[in-house]
UniProtKB/TrEMBL annotation:
InterPro entries from the UniProt entry: BBE, FAD-bd_PCMH, FAD-bd_PCMH-like_sf, FAD-bd_PCMH_sub2, FAD-linked_Oxidoreductase, Oxid_FAD_bind_N
Keyword annotations of the record: FAD, Flavoprotein, Oxidoreductase
A GO term for molecular function: FAD binding
Protein name: Putative fad binding domain-containing protein
Keyword Mitochondrion: no
Pfam families reported for this sequence: BBE, FAD_binding_4
UniProt KW Oxidoreductase keyword: yes
Superkingdom per UniProt: Eukaryota
Organism: Diaporthe ampelina
Domain FAD-binding PCMH-type: 1-173
Family assignment from sequence similarity: Belongs to the oxygen-dependent FAD-linked oxidoreductase family.
Length: 442
């Protein structure tokens, strides 16, 4: 989908105080408002918006505290600048892996990233938030100031306010180099590859010396013109000579290519598709998306998904840019936080999967074909874990998922979120991004 909200007026704020002023003005004119940091929302729910856009891009301050324990970040900063600025001063913090995307946007829904095995999700780095509420009031939010909002903003923050700035934990960068290896395999290797990935422990038991792994089904005509290639990338916290013996099982599976890189944290995301000018960051593209959270990779359904890709691409080779992504991180830093301490409900969901086909077209028949392919792929992922209730990472959701899937199946959690919505946003002003309360239902 190519999501286009209807922006009547865009206000590029110059100070944090301007955000409250714009919200108050919009309310006085009974106009809707929507804060945008980098504009990478892919959910169709934002297409319902019609009103004033609050552009946060000029709020780009990054300031490390004198005690070197936290950094003060403004609401318009994005991963590219934060990663580089902190690295140059010897520190890291939680961000996403796609460097063109804001830090705060994904963090409000959890925020997966390379630091999570050691230190938790991006939202787990929060120390203090400065928030503008739906009525235009600016408030401080932390463990002792507005503690109910502190709970809600971490995991469901898009529903409650605009973060104009925040303080986040930072960590001394102890690893000066990182090792990245990418394998490419033909389709015949799928079963042993998936078996070895599962055996490594990406289902929650992996040593956090591994940052992440990313598996991909996509067309690479230099390997095969008729079937997708399987690529799998591993990111290691340290030197090549320490990582290579641990990857020996994959060497034995006869990859068609192996690419090694040694890099710093400053540029590591560039090697896994997250470069600021990379494929993931191109604007104004039509995407058909689908996603599912998993506990492990089911070998049988992985084969079915691969074979489905082969079948679909045979029918429509113009969809050759389709990517079926398997996204895995070390999780010890995530599971170390109590489930009930925040609105985030998915600490026990270890793996992310993502279907994305991208093209430039207005052909309704082709769009319908891609949507059917998406639906079939997502259904197969869930078929591979029939004993688990489906859940969806809110930052990957595209607007057709249930509220329970996004925010939790526990009745107490949804009841608390809805009660807080009635208290802090009774008119449902914050309802454009995968909302707890859909537009018109307040």
């Amino acid at each position: 989908m190519n999501v286009q909200p209807k922006v009547q007026l865009s206000v590029q704020v110059g100070t944090e105080e301007d955000v409250a002023t714009v919200v108050q003005y919009a309310n006085s004119r009974n106009l809707s408002f929507y804060a945008v940091s980098r504009g990478h929302a892919l959910t169709k729910t934002v297409a319902r918006f019609d009103g004033i856009e609050i552009d946060l891009r000029n709020l780009d301050g990054i300031q490390i505290a004198p005690d070197n324990k936290t950094v003060h970040l403004q609401g318009g900063v994005y991963s590219y600048n934060v990663i580089r600025d902190l690295w140059d001063q010897g520190f890291v913090t939680g961000t996403g892996g796609c460097t063109c995307v804001s830090v705060i946007g994904p963090a409000l829904g959890g925020g997966h990233g390379l630091q999570q095995g050691q230190h938790g999700l991006t939202m787990d780095h929060f120390v203090h938030l400065n928030v503008v509420l739906a009525n235009g009031t600016a408030v401080s939010v932390n463990k002792t100031s507005n503690p109910d909002l502190w709970w809600a903003m971490r995991g469901a923050g898009h529903n409650f306010g605009i973060v104009t700035s925040w303080d986040a934990k930072i960590w001394e960068e102890n690893f000066k180099t990182y090792f990245v290896r990418t394998y490419e395999f033909e389709g015949s290797a799928l079963e042993p590859v998936i078996d070895e990935v599962n055996r490594m422990g990406w289902d929650g038991s992996l040593d956090p010396v591994w940052l992440a792994s990313f598996g991909l089904f996509t067309m690479n005509t230099s390997v095969s013109e008729t079937e997708p290639t399987i690529s799998w990338t591993f990111l290691y916290n340290g030197a090549k000579e320490d990582a290579v013996p641990l990857l020996a099982p994959f060497d034995a599976l006869e990859p068609v290519s192996v690419q090694d890189n040694t890099t710093t944290y400053r540029t590591i995301n560039d090697l896994v598709g997250g470069a600021i000018d990379g494929w993931l960051c191109e604007a104004n593209k039509t995407h058909i998306l689908g996603t599912a959270n998993l506990q492990n990779y089911n070998v049988t359904t992985s084969r079915a998904i691969y074979d489905l890709y082969t079948e679909k691409i045979r029918q429509h080779p113009e969809l050759g840019e389709t990517r079926v992504l398997h996204e895995s991180y070390a999780v010890q830093g995530v599971t170390g936080f109590a489930d009930e301490d925040s609105a985030y409900s998915q600490r026990d969901e270890h793996l992310l999967t993502y279907f994305d086909t991208r093209f430039d077209t207005t052909d309704d028949a082709l769009i319908s074909f891609a949507e059917e392919w998406r639906d079939q792929t997502v259904a197969l992922w869930y078929q591979g874990q029939p004993d688990r209730t489906p859940t969806t990472y809110v930052n990957y959701a595209v607007g057709y998922e249930s509220t329970e899937s996004l925010y939790g199946h526990d009745a107490w959690r949804l009841e608390r979120l809805r009660a807080l919505k009635r208290e802090y946003d009774p008119s449902n002003k914050f309802s454009w991004y995968n909302p707890i309360v859909p537009v018109g239902e307040q």
